[in-house]
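Justification of computing resources. Each target in the renewal requires a structure prediction run like the one illustrated here; the chain below, 142 residues long, is used simply to show the kind of job we budget for.
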Amino acid sequence: MSKLIEKHSVGEELATQAIDVATTKARELGVAVAIAVVDESGVLKAFRRMDGAPLGTVELGPAKARMAASFGAPSSVFHGLAKDDGAIAVSLAGITGVTVLGGGEPIVVGGALAGAIGVSGGTEEQDIEIAQAAVEAVTAGG
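Resulting structure tokens:
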């Protein structure tokens, strides 16, 4: 058994590309958002707050990204789970710096979780659409 593990992580170029694609998509939708890209461990790699994005988005964008990176699933998945299961709701509430609001999407490259993106500032549906557009763009062909 190896004493080390190999991890995959978003690089600066991928993180910047994701931020740029998300910004373009947000502008198309006419919303100002905050966009956070985190690595596979949930550590912030890149961040942008568009002009006009509400102040609360500065914390919610990264929280959505951390949630997606922590579990390798969209942050929105956990809203239904928490709503339907009190034990899950209490457990998730005990994790610092995450949220079950939609807009956090994992970034999977070559079958490996490499990080996540979190978008906050539009409606939940807009945030999800923006995050998914960015993930699709940066993982195309990978």
